[in-house]
Amino acid sequence: METKHVVVARVRDFPANTRRLVEVDGQEIGIFNVKGEYYALRSSCPHQGAPLCRGRVLGTNVSTKPYQMEYAHEGEIIKCPWHGWEFEISSGRSIFNPHKVRVRTYDVTVEPPEDEEEDPSIPMYPVTIEAGQVVVHVPVQRR
Ligand code: FES
Question: In CATH, what number is assigned to the domain containing residue 48?
Answer without folding.
Answer: 2.102.10.10
